[in-house]
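Researcher: We're teaching a course module on how sequence relates to structure. For the next exercise, students receive a sequence and then see the predicted structure as tokens, so they can try to spot secondary structure elements on their own. Here is the exercise chain.
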Amino acid sequence: MIAFNPGSWNTLLWHTMCPVHMSKRVVESTADGVLLRVAVKPRSRARTFIANIGVESVNLNLKAPAREGKANAELLKRVAKLLKLSTADVILVSGSKSRDKTLLIRGVTADRVLSVLQAVKNNK
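Model: And here is the predicted structure for the students to work with:
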């Protein structure tokens, strides 16, 4: 175990580089598009698609099982339909075999994504 001096440069570097201390936002604008962080629940019996909009991710309920990419396919289709985009504009960047996923969405702004998610969450 490495002991850190609270006022040292190493502590500052560790706090800024450590994944636990790095702040991840739900929606983040990049040069390629908008990154959306989601946490999915496959084979959910809940009727609502958006369960919760948190600080670090959006919790989504999927009906498809997490087998043979069915849940990922449903996720991409439903997000594209929600934002009124083509499924080619929504790309799974990371987390293909995890419940925590990152999507790259092209052709839309971060503000638009957040406003659509909030509107859907508040209406249903």
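Model: If you want an answer key for the exercise: Residues 24-123 form a domain with the Conserved Hypothetical Protein Mth637; Chain: A; fold (CATH 3.30.1200.10). DSSP finds three helices and six strands in the chain.
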